[in-house]
Amino acid sequence: LPTPEHFVKDVDGGIDQDIFDINEALGLDLFEGDIRLDGVQDRNS
Amino acid sequence: IIGENYRWPHTIPYVLEDSLEMNAKGVILNAFERYRLKTCIDFKPWTGEANFISVFKGSGCWSSIGNKRVGNQSLSIGENCDRIATIQHEFLHALGFWHEQSRSDRDDYVNIIWDRIQSGKENNFNIYDDQVSDTLNVPYDYTSVMHYSKTAFRNGTEPTIVTRIPDFMDVIGQRMDFSDSDLLKLNRLYNCSSSLSFMDSCNFELENVCGMIQGSGDSADWQRLSQVPSGPESDHSNMGQCAGAGFFMHFNSSAVSTGAMAVLESRTLYPKRGFQCLQFYLYNSGSGSDQLNIYIREYSAGSENGTVTLVEEIKDIPTGSWQLYHVPLKVANKFRVLFGGVRGAGASLGGLSIDDINLSETRCPHHIWRIRNFTQLMGSLDGALYSPPFYSPKGYAFQISLTLSNPTNAGIYFHLISGANDDQLEWPCPWQQATMTLLDQNPDIRQRMSNQRSVTTDPLLTDDDGSYFWDRPSKVGQEALFPNGTQFRRGKGRGTSAFITHERLKSRDFIKGDDVYILLTVEDISHLNTTAPQPVPTNGTPTTSTSTAPTPGLCVNFACENDGVCTVWNGKAECRCPSGDDWWYMGARCEKRGSTRDTIVITASSTAAVFAVMLVVTLLSVYCTRRRYRQKTGPSTAEVPVENEHVF
User: If DSSP states are collapsed to H, E and C, what string results for B416-482?
Assistant: First the structure.
């Protein structure tokens, strides 16, 4: 059956975001994208 | 990561913090079930252990590598991170795994295109040498859930990772489930030899038929065959793709009279959790009234031959194709599963066949949506494919829609629909979690990489027009028709347009025999919304966390002091008291505090007190003895001659 596009809510907004995309969009600068180093959250190598 | 200090115990204590979204809590518990099925790693709610993983909704999805031994080790499942494979990925980090492409031999398998990487992000493509990271003798794995996808940290539209074997370009970055190599590495790292919930898998390829035996006292036998003239033409495991292989078990109902039965018994099985899910494929080429009965032979004290119980009668088995069935079991003692083929009335040219049996101590899906002739639907479907209507255990009617018109991705959505129980139900619908699983039909449940997404009904979620999103479909839904012409109303769907790419959908065993299965479970997760105080962690920082186990009614009027957690044990409410390395709470309600310092103080003071008492007793004894002696010798001195007298 045809479905009106507005009659569903896409929680991904039409984009298949990977973990590092999600973190990057939040402005996080985690080590290798999603690794928290000892006591330091916002640090890359 | 190399270093035993980074390892967790096989059962990892965890806390799901209040900050987590409800959907995330349910998905985390589902991810734990995948660990329990495929690895020896288990999870338990934290009860005061020195180190534990605290899952919370932070900014983004992240974890540390390995057990940092810091007491409360945080793992963030932020917004949009509530996907099962993302959670599996983050927990693999916590268990000690880096990303796959940071292996020392990475450059043998992928090319990193450095000038396509965003400036300043090059360090995300580091390599660790074999002094830091161990590959555990497992080959480089393009299919790892720990591998980046080709677009990672790109500055434009071109891929930053190019696989040396081009076929793997769209394979890297899967977020479906553990790959075989992920499991091999995890099981090697943690010396796993079994899992909590896996019991048996059988595709009948070996002549020992997985230790199954023919039943006694029945009127026919099951045969191990690779084809039957009247069907099936091939087994389900290989679908006839392997010459000389591909076996299944067949009950030839055409050779026996009506009412005859053939029983096939599994080997003896030993349950751990008390609930099981039996799944298998069934093919009917016999009479439409042939049926398959599932029995359990349960052994308990006093029943040497076991007690046989009928669990399910499978009737009206469609003819001409393999069909998936699930049977939930609830067995606590040693048992066997019995497959009883029964010859029905009417003409039969063939019989019943079974293949790809899996038994695990997991929950069965509530419903199965089988989509036949799937390949012709792909790309040609303009709109959505709707599932038949189903009911949740609470009574909510729902439907799933699958969208295939997008050239790249398939989408999936969960809709509430008007149903027979709507007057008795709570609206807007509170905290029902719908889990939709595209089944990877690999014959072995442990090797399946099924694609799963969950949606949870938040009763306070509003739509753009201000109405409640999960309100009664007859109020907020649109009119729709079932194929038979019955009118109903369908609520708005919630889900994703990026459920799976068409490329991945065509891979593995998602489509088998041109059939696709979507497994559906809708469960009430309201209990995850209750906040229970948790013990004070060892670092002394109090946290308030959500108990992952339902808080039963017995605990309502049973308060635990000092952040003790109420649990129900043997039908009684009990307090689990917090403890640390050198302190603990005790008593029926955790009202008393103890510590090793207290013990030392008690021991020292007891010793001192005993010494003081003994000293006083000794002094008194000496004093009394001397006094008595003096009294004795005083007045009679003149009468007794002094010679030959003993003196103390």
Answer: EECCCCHHHCCCCCCCEEEEEEECCCCCCHHHCCCEEEEEECCCCCECCCCCECCCCHHHHCEEEEC
| Span B474-498, average pLDDT | 96
DSSP three-state, residue B399: strand
Is B90 in the active site? yes
- The DSSP annotation for B320-362 comes to SSEEEEEEEE---SSEEEEEEEE--SS--SSEEEEEEEEEESS
Q: Which residues on A lie below 8 Å from B99 (Cβ)? A: 32-33
Note the pLDDT tens digit of each residue in B219-264.
999 999 999 999 999 999 999 888 889 999 999 999 999 999 999 9
Burial B143-181 (b: 16+ CB within 10 A, else e): bbbbbbbbbbbbeeeebbbbbeeeebbbbbbbbbbbbbb
B228 forms bridges with which residues in the sheet?
Answer: none
Helices B84-94 and B22-38 meet at what angle, rounded to 10? 60
* Residues B531-563: tens digit of each pLDDT: 644 554 444 343 433 333 333 356 656 777 776
Strand pairing partners for B53? B14, B73
CA distances to B60, B90, B117, B158, B634 from B121, rounded to whole Å, are 18, 20, 7, 16, 105
Residue bearing tokens 């990026």: B498
Distances (CA, A) of B439 to B20, B160, B178, B473, B511: 27, 31, 14, 29, 9
DSSP class per residue in B592-647: EEEEHHHHHHHHHHHHHHHHHHHHHHHHHHHHHHHHHHHHHHTTTTTTS-STT---
Dist CA B163 CA B331 (whole Å): 48
- Is the Cβ–Cβ distance between B451 and B462 less than 8 Å? no
- Smallest Cα distance from B335 to chain A, Å: 43
The residue annotated as part of the active site, out of B17, B90, B100, B298, is B90
Give long-range contacts, CB 8 A cutoff, 24+ apart: B554-559. B559/B589
Q: Which residues of chain B make contact with A11, given a CB cutoff of 8 A?
A: 80, 455, 494-496
CB proximity under 8 Å: B 352-391 to A = 382-384, 386
Cβ atoms of A43 and A29 within 8 Å: the answer is yes
Q: ipTM of the assembly?
A: 0.86
- For residues B164 and B141, is the Cβ–Cβ distance under 8 A? no
Which one, of B395, B394, B396, B377, lies nearest residue B386 by Cα? B377
